[in-house]
Write a structure and sequence with these properties.
- The protein is mainly alpha-helical and 401 residues long.
- Helices cover 66% and strands 4% of the residues.
- The longest helix has 38 residues, at 300-337.
- 26% of the residues are buried.
- The structure holds zinc ion.
- Residues 246, 250, 326, 329 line the site of zinc ion.
């Protein structure tokens, strides 16, 4: 039923025109995104086609029964070289540009600290898990893709489960809300959506940016709603209530679980395609690559390129699914707050303060947008208010009076 479309009278917040500076930020962001994407293919391809990966594999080979350590040494060297090559572009994208446009106030030492922690975590994760895939490649040359998919899914579940408790605090200070009076208001509001005894977490971002955000994280009982302290403005809580309503929508509608479900299907598909194409490519280029077997750790860049490629091809579908979930979370937040003006104003301010382009192009939407365009979100807020016309609410069953 699209009848609310004809009753578009819920709030009258105009979609702002993208400012000149926002458009410049949009264009430079797209160029940097393309460069980073290109690098993620070029670096492993160079490792492969120059025979350097094979050399690195030989160099890392520790004689005797130290197969695991050979893999670990290769990974350590591979990641170190990879990070060194991509560091300048990462620094320019994440630090220089964001400061130039006034979006970040993060100190250089904090940026370096975060980058170093990420790299370390990445190395630890790679050393902990990659050998399992190589063992499967060795033991089951025909079915490794199937077992590897299961392992990859299990690892992702594990990381999603531990990240709110073990990983996120490595980067930021996260704790209960500081403003107890406000917390009580938010909790009373949360109980309207059936979230009794829940805890809302506050993450300190005010030393890094003025931008505001919130998210739901975790699985298997570690789920939590986290709000950036920059979004907490005690004198203007209407926008915050909508934000919380939106995040509770993700939570109540099990969006994390749905996402993991789609992710699991995609993982099987991506590993299967990687399996088929890697055999084909290795058969034709083994002389150039200077290794013959996929279970040789030197094949890592080949597997990375293929997984990267198929993930990239799947990303429009994932963005589409994510945009759909975001729209439903917006609907949930609107039905719960019934304050369309506050929601539309919040989105308008994203466009004005955070230099978001309210109406990006179709290519950008397909490849990069995991949220609906701000223009669509504002228009949705302006037009969706079934309660005004005595129409039923889509998510009424989740609400307590
Ligand atoms: Zn959301």
């Amino acid at each position: 039923m699209m009848n609310w479309f004809f009753l578009a009278d819920c709030s009258h917040v105009a979609v702002p025109k993208a400012t000149e500076i926002a458009m410049r930020h949009y264009y430079i962001g797209n160029i940097l995104w393309l460069l980073q994407l290109a690098l993620s293919f070029v670096i492993p391809l160079l490792f492969l086609t120059t025979g350097f990966s094979a050399k690195l594999g030989k160099f890392s080979r520790i004689r005797g029964k130290y197969w695991f350590f050979s893999i670990a040494l290769y990974l350590l060297l591979f990641i170190a070289i990879y990070q060194l090559i991509s560091l300048p572009l990462d620094f320019y994208t994440e630090y220089v540009v964001e400061h130039e446009y006034g979006l970040s106030i993060q100190t250089l030492s904090k940026w370096i600290e975060h980058y170093a922690i990420w790299t370390l975590l990445f190395i630890v994760g790679a050393v902990l898990f990659v050998w399992i895939f190589y063992l499967l490649l060795q033991k089951s040359p025909k079915n490794w893709w199937f077992y590897s998919s299961i392992v990859a899914i299990a690892i992702t579940f594990f990381i999603t489960f531990i990240s709110p408790i073990w990983i996120d605090p490595l980067f930021d200070t996260i704790g209960p809300m500081k403003n107890k009076e406000l917390e009580a208001k938010l909790l009373a509001f949360a109980s309207k959506a059936g979230l009794e005894n829940s805890q809302i977490y506050e993450i300190k971002k005010s030393d890094e940016t003025h931008m505001a955000n919130a998210y739901v994280t975790g699985l298997f009982g570690t789920e939590r709603i986290v709000i950036w302290d920059t979004a907490i403005k005690p004198n203007d809580i209407d926008g915050l209530l909508f934000t919380l309503g939106h995040e509770m929508g993700h939570y109540v509608l099990n969006h994390n679980w749905w996402f993991m479900f789609y992710y699991s299907i995609a993982t099987f598909l991506i590993f299967y395609l990687t399996y088929r194409s890697s055999i084909f490519i290795l058969h034709h280029y083994n002389k150039r690559f200077r290794f013959n077997n996929l279970y040789d750790i030197a094949s890592l860049p080949l597997l990375l390129v293929l997984i990267n490629l198929f993930t990239l091809l799947a990303s429009p579908v994932f963005n589409y699914i994510s945009r759909d979930m975001e729209r439903e979370a917006d609907r949930f937040g609107l039905e719960l707050t019934q304050n369309n003006f506050a929601a539309a104003t919040l989105f308008r301010n994203f466009a004005l303060d955070d230099l978001a382009n309210p109406n990006p192009g179709i290519l950008y939407t397909i490849w990069r947008c995991d949220h609906p365009a701000l223009k669509d979100r504002i228009e949705f807020c302006n037009s969706y208010c079934p309660w005004e016309q005595g129409q039923p609410l889509k998510y009424a069953k989740y609400f307590k009076d």
